Amino acid sequence: xxxxxxxxxxxxxxxxxxxxxxxxxxxxxxxxxxxxxxxxxxxxxxxxxxxxxxxxxxxxxxxxxxxxxxxxxxxxxxxxxxxxxxxxxxxxxxxxxxxxxxxxxxxxxxxxxxxxxxxxxxxxxxxxxxxxxxxxxxxxxxxxxxxxxxxxxxxxxxxxxxxxxxxxxxxxxxxxxxxxxxxxxxxxxxxxxxxxxxxxxxxxxxxxxxxxxxxxxxxxxxxxxxxxxxxxxxxxxxxxxxxxxxxxxxxxxxxxxxxxxxxxxxxxxxxxxxxxxxxxxxxxxxxxxxxxxxxxxxxxxxxxxxxxxxxxxxxxxxxxxxxxxxxxxxxxxxxxxxxxxxxxxxxxxxxxxxxxxxxxxxxxxxxxxxxxxxxxxxxxxxxxxxxxxxxxxxxxxxxxxxxxxxxxxxxxxxxxxxxxxxxxxxxxxxxxxxxxxxxxxxxxxxxxxxxxxxxxxxxxxxxxxxxxxxxxxxxxxxx
Length: 479
Ligand code: NAP
Ligand code: MG
What we know:
By secondary structure, this protein is α/β, with parallel strands linked by helices. The protein has helices at about 55-75, 80-95, 100-110, 115-135, 160-175, 190-200, 215-225, 235-245, 270-285, 300-315, 335-350, 385, 400-410, 425-435, 465-470, and strands at about 20, 25, 30, 35-40, 45-55, 150-155, 180-185, 210, 230-235, 255, 265, 295-300, 355-360, 375, 395-400, 415-420, 440, 460. It has two domains: about 15-260 and about 460-470, Aldehyde Dehydrogenase, Chain A, domain 1 (3-Layer(aba) Sandwich), CATH 3.40.605.10; about 265-440, Aldehyde Dehydrogenase, Chain A, domain 2. Strand 9 (about 230-235), helix 8 and strand 10 (about 255) form a beta-alpha-beta unit. The protein starts with 20 loop residues before the first strand and ends in a 7-residue tail after the last helix. Belongs to the aldehyde dehydrogenase family.
């Protein structure tokens, strides 16, 4: 099918002002770290964007001390209404500077500007607005008459939604009266550092938010710090298990938002065109770097051929390329390491006997790229049906009865998300009831809202983020 030719429509990067190097944001000030520095690159071009300080254990200690002092002298003494004012201010600043954040996020992460502009940044602001509203109403959240914060919270986040994950962490922590030390992912620190500037602009008291950049060891130093009261982590199940082991036997609270292998279940009465759009949204949104992606498509056997054919026709129209182009649907893979992982798992899919198809689109010469790919003939024992690929790769399996669909959907160590496509409301309710997944979407996929709790079953973690349930994760004795 011929695709329309679109003239390039690049968003200007003149709106962002990237410094050549960044320090750590501790106690409201920029300080040099005691460790080495590393570079953050644009994954679409491999261009170095900035030098970033790697915080070591002594830097983490300074940040925790700043957070402790801010907690006991200022933040825990402030009324909820006053804390809320700061959060509203931050939310408005995120909206005012939305274009700057969107361009910076696309540059550092590789995701299309269409998504940073329409999803990541507006949702990040929405999280601050939503939690700002809770700050003076915690006694009415059904969590007891006077729920108490933990104190100092250590937060470690991944690279797939850098600013959005930061807002999922910082907004509820601050609203409930905690102070934070947050580490962004090594490959995507820039929007967290711009957020630090927003905290200064909002006149947030020094030490309430501390941003310590770095890699794995910096994260470990946060997890291990004895004066941290609670750890909130989003990332892989492997690291989540290590964190759970590290803090076992300590007094620290913990919430873990981990990996997933979401089943997107299509029954034979589903509206096919809408379903195809939902499948695309489920696995090709954000290059498939989504913990709750619909990475396993379970299609009823009688319509499997037709769904696969229509899906392939639709995928041929996806535009892969420059993340700053407003027409781009699929951007760059975030890092070479992630590209290698996707490549290896896809090779394993072929070697184990699944049929591989990709949309054959041209790819840029520089940067990290992977074509939208579909595997059919996948069986449950294949690695591509079991392991999280975290890339634009869909595994298609079939089923004959609703019972078989549910059994296959639940046959995974994960339990984060699932989707159901059918014309019948009763079938939606029956299926959703059987699925062991924290989020189940019906006739849609990958919808997010700050009012809605998000989190997993089984090895997808514990605790919820968002909604009233998410507040509980930041209040002592509530979760
Ligand atoms: P990751 O390797 O687990 O990293 C997550 C964060 O933890 C990064 O900041 C990382 O640092 C840090 N880290 C690594 N080792 C650590 C350690 N030993 N102690 C403390 N911190 C450590 O995960 P990723 O590959 O970046 O992210 C992808 C994973 O996140 C996927 O599995 C995805 O499903 C999951 N995820 C889950 C959700 C959810 O809400 N459930 C949301 C988004 C992503 P550096 O990377 O800087 O080295
Ligand atoms: Mg980067």
